[in-house]
Amino acid sequence: MSDKQQQTTADETPAEPGRRKFLGSAAVVGLAGAGLGLAACNKEADKAPAAVVPGKDAAGKTAVAGAHASGEVKPGQLDDYYIMSSGGHSGEVRIYGAPSGRTIKRIPVFNIDPMVGWGITNESKKIIGVKPDGNPKYRTGDTHHVHGSYTDGTYDGKYFWTNDKLNNRLARIRGDYMECDKITEIPNVQGFHGMFPDKCDPLDAKINHTTRVFCGGEFNTPFVTRGPGVRDIKNYASLATCVDAETMEIRWQLKLDGNMDLCATSYDGKLAAFNQYNSENGVILGDMMSAERDGCVFLNIERIEAALKAGKFVTLGDSKVPVIDGTKAANADPKTALTCYVPVPKNPHGVNITPDGKYFVCAGKLSPTATVIAHELVLKWFDGGLKEPRETVVAEPEIGLGPLHTGFDGHGNAYTSLFLDSQVVKWNIDKAIAQFKGDKQAQVVLDRIDVHYQPGHGYTSMGETREADGRYFNSGNKFSKDRFLPVGPLHVEAEQLIDITGAKMVLLHDHTAYPEPHDAIIVRRDKIKTKQIYTMDEFPHAVKDANAAGVERKGNKVTVRLMGVAPNFSMNEFTVKKGDEVTIILTNHDKVEDLAHGFGLEQYDINFIVNPQQTASVTFKADKPGMFWYYCTHFCHALHLEMRGRMIVEA
Ligand code: K7E
Ligand code: CUA
Ligand code: CA
């Protein structure tokens, strides 16, 4: 940590955003107080981290500045948390370790990845979908959010979902193999942005786990009219979509006024909230910024499901998805309304729910405020107990410029990224509510820390669960100039891990992220249970033994069944004819963890791997005659280079 950083972590007048006076570092250490914050943390750094249960200290209490408090994870040690991160327009999902910031995995989802063969193997193409020519239907995507499945209000490690803003798809990642297993294309929308799984079922008290995933449409798009009417914005609307978590089929869509940006769901399953920055329904920037207030719209899930059951929906174009009317005009009576539109200052970005389930926090973006909306008051509005939706607002503190996303520590504090201020601000929710009620003495803002630079998303360890533990806040910064070695025009993104165990936030370290992550979640490591070896039976087409292996011809379709056992393929040579459609099926017979084989076929643009006990296949046209080596691309053995064979294509 530089001296500059120490000096800029403190703010003499935290309640006044925009006016900052900096204390000397000595004063900061003094302020840190009672064994927490800077002084304590630096001391902790000198000790070797003790073995602890993740999230607990050695005595089993919720950890404060415990293992790895310095952010250092020594060689051979494991991280305490998984950071499941979006990859932005790389189209992938990444896994980092926290606190180290080490990249542990990149999961191809909407992109093409030659390393694992995503978009190249038949199995992955089946998930992505193919065009008539057999190529993947899409090659690109734009992931912004990753959220996990819940049981009892916390992660169960079963699934993770991510959105594709570009081609409007929802993808699911299996928590056991950490691989994408399903992708659903969402009809009738553009700019599918915010996404959040529900946490339990409001219709069935016995279901305390995720059964639905809510997806927002950020861009208003032509709703009914196709053809010349597509230019007329009077025909535009946005749709929220509900996807079944298990089947990944679409259950319903809901037509809304304005647009949807981010999403959060309540812990009781009753509400899903979307912040809206374009209540104006504009198509140019000036129009989208014209209103002083936009909104946060709440969906009453129970009532929407009832409307669906009662057949109160239409369908659009070729799509069979039921579309229900959630517009303001159709939902004026609170007692029957499906939706509640709460006015929130100018172009808000981000909506998050507190770990106790009581409050939704919607950040202002163009307003220096965060709006706190009480969950029970939204329900009260739906019961007819409030006159105006705005009466659900219980606080609206000024916290700084360009507030975007908020994380929580489980101790009543919120941490909001301030894009324009290049800071993260820590503020207290109860104090903000007291201030809103008129308590002028209430000290709402507790701390600020500079980040480098311009943070977008920020999120806390377990902060989206009832088990928020207040250990780390990760700031996903959008600009990194001068933070890393210059590498030409394209800059890497700067992720900064902040210790939030003390009264003052402490920057632990910078780590890099290839452009360009948005949201992520920090999941305690015991929540995730992965399998490192597949079961051969999971693959119906597995090449199980020597009898199954070999070459089979049916007309001009040739199937080549191969086994891989380090350092050999089961065949050193096979012959096909020019013009044949060749399918190669490869099963990895090694059972040793970490022993993958690859299959690269020279000049045929084929490249994929098989993990232990996995089967994968490719299909291609043998359109070039000659001899082509196939070789193992993944280092597997001392004789890995020798693991190869020849494909002869006869003219
Ligand atoms: Cu980048 Cu969540 Cu798409 Cu905010 S979003 S920063
Ligand atoms: Cu098998 Cu390298
Ligand atoms: Ca607006």
List keywords for this structure.
binds sulfanyl-(tricuprio-$l^{4}-sulfanyl)copper, binds dinuclear copper ion, mainly beta, 40 strands, globular, 8 helices, Immunoglobulin-like, 651 residues, binds calcium ion, single chain, disordered N terminus
Can you describe what's shown?
With 651 residues, the chain is mostly beta strands. It has a domain at 536-650: Immunoglobulin-like (Sandwich). The chain contains eight helices and 40 strands. Helix 2 (25-32) packs across helix 3 (37-46). Residues 1-66 have low confidence and may be disordered. Sulfanyl-(tricuprio-$l^{4}-sulfanyl)copper is lined by residues 144-145, 193, 262, 349, 404-405, 456-457, 518-519.
Offer a quick outline of the entry.
9% of the residues lie in helices and 37% in strands. The chain is built from 8 helices and 40 strands.
- Ligand roster: sulfanyl-(tricuprio-$l^{4}-sulfanyl)copper, dinuclear copper ion, calcium ion
DSSP strand tally: 40
Q: Main β-sheet: number of strands, strand sense, barrel status? A: 6 strands, mixed
Second rung of CATH, namely the architecture of the domain at 536-650? Sandwich
Layout of helices and strands:
Layout: H1 3-7, H2 25-32, H3 37-46, E1 81-86, E2 93-98, E3 103-107, H4 122-128, E4 146-151, E5 154-164, E6 169-174, E7 179-185, E8 190-197, E9 212-219, E10 221-222, E11 236-244, E12 250-256, E13 263-265, E14 271-276, H5 285-288, E15 293-300, H6 301-309, E16 323-325, E17 339-345, E18 351-353, E19 359-363, E20 370-374, H7 375-382, E21 393-395, E22 403-408, E23 413-418, E24 423-428, H8 429-436, E25 445-450, E26 455-460, E27 472-477, E28 493-499, E29 506-513, E30 520-524, E31 550-554, E32 557-565, E33 568-569, E34 573-577, E35 581-588, E36 597-601, E37 606-610, E38 615-621, E39 626-631, E40 644-650
Parallel strand pairs: 12-16, 32-35, 34-40
Antiparallel strand pairs: 1-2, 1-30, 2-3, 4-5, 5-6, 6-7, 8-9, 9-11, 10-11, 11-12, 13-14, 14-15, 15-17, 18-19, 19-20, 20-21, 22-23, 23-24, 24-25, 26-27, 27-28, 28-29, 31-32, 32-33, 35-38, 36-37, 36-39, 39-40
Helix pairs in contact: 2-3
Bound molecules: sulfanyl-(tricuprio-$l^{4}-sulfanyl)copper, dinuclear copper ion and calcium ion.
Calcium ion binds next to loops.
